[in-house]
Amino acid sequence: MTKQKVVLIGNGMAGVRCIEEIIKTSPDQFDITIIGSEPHPNYNRILLSKVLQGDTSISDITLNELDWYAENNITLHKGETATKVDTKKQTVTTDKQQTIPYDHLIFATGSMPFMLPLPGADKDGVMGFRDIKDCDTLIHYAKTKKKAVVIGGGILGLEAARGLLNLDMDVTVVHNEPYLMNRQLDPEAGKLLKKKLEEQGMKIMVHTLTQELTGKKHVSGLKFVDGSFLEADLVIMAVGIKPQVQLARDSGLSVNNGIVVDDYMRASAPNVYALGECTEHRKTVYGLVAPLYDQGKVLAKTVCGVDTKPYEGSVLSTNLKVSGVSVFSTGTIVESDTSKSLMAFDDWKGTYKKVLSENGRVTGAVLFGDTSESTLLTSMINKKANIEDYLAMQQSDAPAVSVTASMSAEDIICGCNGVTKGTICSAIKEQGLASVEEVKACTSASRSCGGCANLVADLLQETLGDSFDASNQVKPLCSCTTMSRDEIVDAIREQELTTTRSVMNVLDWKTEEGCSKCRPALNYYINMAHPTNSQDEKESKYVNERLHANIQKDGTFSVVPRMYGGVTNADQLRKIADVADKYEVKLLKVTGGQRIDMFGLKKDDLPSVWEDLDMPSGYAYGKTLRTVKTCVGADFCRFGTQDSIGLGVELEKRFERVSTPHKVKMAVSACPRNCAESGIKDVGIVGVDGGWEIYVGGNGGTHLRAADLLVKVKSEQEVLQITGAYFQYYRETAEYLERTAPWVERLGLDHIRDVVTDPEQSVALIARLDVALAATVEPWKQVISDAQIRKELYEVAAPALTK
Ligand SMILES: Cc1cc2nc3c(=O)[nH]c(=O)nc-3n(C[C@H](O)[C@H](O)[C@H](O)COP(=O)(O)OP(=O)(O)OC[C@H]3O[C@@H](n4cnc5c(N)ncnc54)[C@H](O)[C@@H]3O)c2cc1C
Ligand SMILES: NC(=O)c1ccc[n+]([C@@H]2O[C@H](COP(=O)([O-])OP(=O)(O)OC[C@H]3O[C@@H](n4cnc5c(N)ncnc54)[C@H](O)[C@@H]3O)[C@@H](O)[C@H]2O)c1
Ligand code: SF4
Ligand code: FES
């Protein structure tokens, strides 16, 4: 019997998911042909933001490899565009002059970025962000261009802006409304989001309308309606999307904003259907994957002739994919005369929550800072749950049960991929799955945005009980490898791998060049493991570390010479003043770490500045010991009993220069009044009766944490010894970019204390630290004396490297 022919136009996320459902429902019923304009197999468009942000790579986001098409006898015409549909003859013609007959035709043509029709919008350097080609172009531009402007402070604009910041660009978001993500958030959450992103280095202009893009061939700036001007050599428009419906319209289908379909995804011509972003269902065009996948399930059954519930629309949920910022929005967030809202704002924790109800039912929510209730609230909205039930949960004294425990088998755990709790639990039991990675491979849950990975871990816990060890889950270093940090460090040691290239070759890296996450991490681990026979690879370092100065938003640099223990003298101050005059320093600023920061220096002046200063680098840019802050101590203070300055200077001289997983700050106070703020440092020393207390794991930054008392010792010699062992243990066991505060929590204070006070282990740690310290060089001196380095790094434009 000849098979019926299904033709899909659009090889994207919605269409291919529908084909997967068709194959699942009726494996042998159809001959399937897919026509896709893009030259790639189906990939995860969602993760393009993560590719731009350096968290994953293009090679890692393919959803269906070419083998999958072959295995399922699907004819794929990639890099080919459907140009004509004859709904009477039931044929599709392509730009390569092929005419393909169909029995069932599915439109899944998606959408395009909406480009504002501004004068100058056609200049080079003005683009949208939608596909792999755009992503590649942006990464390419970031290597030579400096100033990016993103028009549109919606979800796509902010994810793109974060990506460009990671690529070392100076980024401004220009938004028309008074607050960011106005379509998904309320004003309060929008303002909190703005503050948070500004802290990350993003510049944001709200209430701003662009009038024109300037420049000759290439864009050079934006003129705003109020007459002001902003320089730019890259402009991204992220002001919404435009469904691709021209082909459908030309084919005579009924089209409004999207291709009009009924509740079974049928378009207006016989045997023609549509789903995805090109589709309008009950006057709504969706722009997120979860609804598209719901549509795919219904459409697959319709095509297969299997009974199905109608598609009645979807509740939308949005998660911003920007690391360090948790924002979630679901359901209806606009208040009406009849809605009621519950609000909770915690200024200390930086969290905000608003839950809306209508006629006693939960209808919408906005969460900022803490999104742990996102699944619970989405599930309550879908079930039209009573707001009283939610309030009762909030007021209950009973210990919080995991969100998943209260969910039924039909509840969706992974919104992106439409995977239910029941599917995941059955897969865990039936397939013997024991990790989030295995669940991902088997069920697709957590395969897209990754936002549901914690819930999947909860389900593993719920299903496997005590035999599930959450801490034992292998977390790959990045998407270029399946190996964890520990496995990689072991291999670096055991197999004597001394370059990032050799690690990637020997450990079968999935990408040729690695990514901005693994390259600096590997460089650190290699240098830590082999301090005497490895090179610090400049090309694997962040720009500030590579140039030994801090790049500022106007492209100039700031320089901080070392002042041991925060002590200086007239001679040093004179030199700093002379350099400030000679090189026209724009700002001299005393830092929180008790030294002087010189702002506004030109890159090519840096080597001469250091030569004139003749002081060591203060490493204000480095992942190493930054400063040892000291109080004035016994010599001058009425309360001081110990020499805090002397000890601080000794500590700084002892540990300076050697690399650490993240920056390290120390302080020494000569009495418990703690004027040097020892309680919020990575290592904080406090003089007490009969000796010194050593505090560890403190942090005074965004994640404020009071340091824990590690030990009390009698002598300065013991302080140096314990601190040395602690410092090296942190170097050897922390993940790259892990500060001591989370590291202490992860390893446990008792364990760390046991290690650093154990005589044998402590001596061995210090011996290894001494080898590493002996291999360090003063970086500014090295630049001054090495003409080649000066030429390569300071005289020509250095290649951009991710932050
Ligand atoms: C950077 C980015 C991040 C995103 N993040 C998220 C997120 O976190 N969560 C979320 O839910 N959604 C997110 N989205 C939105 C999500 O990717 C889309 O909703 C989804 O991809 C839409 O799927 P689709 O199949 O309808 O369209 P697409 O994935 O766009 O696929 C349509 C395909 O059809 C092809 N096509 C069009 N016309 C023709 C023709 N005539 N002939 C042949 N081929 C044709 C197009 O080239 C395209 O490949 C994001 C989007 C972007 C761009
Ligand atoms: N994490 C996610 O879920 C995610 C991530 C990226 C993209 N997406 C999807 O991709 C699509 C595109 O996203 P988007 O952010 O472009 O769309 P959007 O409609 O969500 O946001 C566009 C924003 O641009 C603003 N804007 C409109 N005109 C403007 C102007 N002239 N000047 C300045 N600002 C202007 C609007 O106020 C709006 O906030 C959406 O469907 C979105 O859902 C989702
Ligand atoms: S910490 Fe104590 S000794 Fe040091 S300056 Fe403050 S009061 Fe004086
Ligand atoms: S919710 Fe996005 S991958 Fe599961």
Automatic annotation (TrEMBL):
Record keywords, A-Z: 2Fe-2S, 4Fe-4S, FAD, Flavoprotein, Heme, Iron, Iron-sulfur, Metal-binding, Nitrate assimilation, Oxidoreductase
Gene Ontology annotations of biological process type: nitrate assimilation
Protein name per Swiss-Prot or TrEMBL: Assimilatory nitrite reductase (NAD(P)H) large subunit
Cofactor note as given: Binds 1 [4Fe-4S] cluster per subunit. Binds 1 siroheme per subunit.
Residue ranges occupied by any Nitrite/Sulfite reductase ferredoxin-like domain in the UniProt entry: 551-614
NCBIfam families assigned to the protein according to its UniProt record, in alphabetical order: nitri_red_nirB
Keyword Metal-binding: yes
Family: Belongs to the nitrite and sulfite reductase 4Fe-4S domain family.
Pathways per UniProt: Nitrogen metabolism; nitrate reduction (assimilation)
Residues holding siroheme: 675
Organism in which the protein naturally occurs: Aureibacillus halotolerans
Binding-site residues, [4Fe-4S] cluster: 631, 637, 671, 675
Residue span, NADH-rubredoxin oxidoreductase C-terminal domain: 317-384
Coiled-coil region(s): none
Domain Nitrite/sulphite reductase 4Fe-4S: 622-759
UniProt cross-references to InterPro entries, sorted A to Z: BFD-like_2Fe2S-bd_dom, BFD-like_2Fe2S-bd_dom_sf, FAD/NAD-bd_sf, FAD/NAD-binding_dom, FAD/NAD-linked_Rdtase_dimer_sf, NasD-like, NiRdtase/SiRdtase_haem-b_fer, Nit/Sulf_reduc_fer-like_dom_sf
SUPFAM superfamilies: FAD/NAD(P)-binding domain, Nitrite and sulphite reductase 4Fe-4S domain-like, Nitrite/Sulfite reductase N-terminal domain-like
GO molecular function, one term: NADP binding
FAD/NAD(P)-binding domain sequence ranges: 5-283
Ranges for domain BFD-like [2Fe-2S]-binding: 412-462, 477-527
Cofactor(s) this protein cannot do without: FAD; [4Fe-4S] cluster; siroheme; [2Fe-2S] cluster
Keyword flag Metal-binding: yes
